[in-house]
Design the sequence.
């Protein structure tokens, strides 16, 4: 991941590159309930770990407290998987566990609509399957 830009430091924006959600989190998947529970647990912990690891790198402010509510999010959902992209509703529902992981990492105060607003959501094909999230406090 690249160093944050001066604009990101000044504006207090945080950009994180997080892993792609597993297929079991798709609303169209029909996994066994234990397989889905395992996928949720592992993906949530992975998002928490990756967020903390990226925020501890030089150049980022140390996040001791979550961003102040209301947080605005710009999400770039990049898929390198063959086949069509999921529709926006399915992709957003797969990211519920990601938001929980960011709350666990103390980046977000919560994931309720009063605390988090998705300002823009982009679905696209890319060279890597990943989710890039840019967060900033609403002013």
Sequence:
């Amino acid at each position: 991941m690249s160093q944050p830009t001066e604009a990101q430091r000044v504006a207090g924006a945080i950009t994180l590159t997080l892993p792609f959600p597993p297929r079991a989190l798709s609303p169209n998947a029909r996994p066994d309930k234990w397989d889905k529970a395992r996928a949720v647990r592992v993906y949530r912990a992975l998002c928490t770990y990756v967020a903390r690891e990226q925020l501890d790198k030089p150049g980022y402010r140390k996040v001791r407290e979550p961003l102040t509510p209301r947080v605005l999010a710009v999400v770039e959902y990049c898929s390198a998987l063959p086949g069509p992209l999921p529709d926006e509703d399915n992709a957003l529902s797969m990211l519920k566990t990601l938001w929980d992981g960011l709350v666990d990492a103390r980046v977000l105060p919560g994931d309720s609509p009063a605390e988090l607003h998705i300002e823009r959501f982009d679905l696209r094909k890319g060279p890597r399957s990943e989710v890039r999230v840019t967060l900033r406090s609403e002013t």
The mean pLDDT is 85. Residues 33-55 form the longest helix (23 residues). The helical segments are 6-11, 33-55, 88-94, 96-104. The domain at 6-137 is CATH 3.30.1330 (60s Ribosomal Protein L30; Chain: A;).
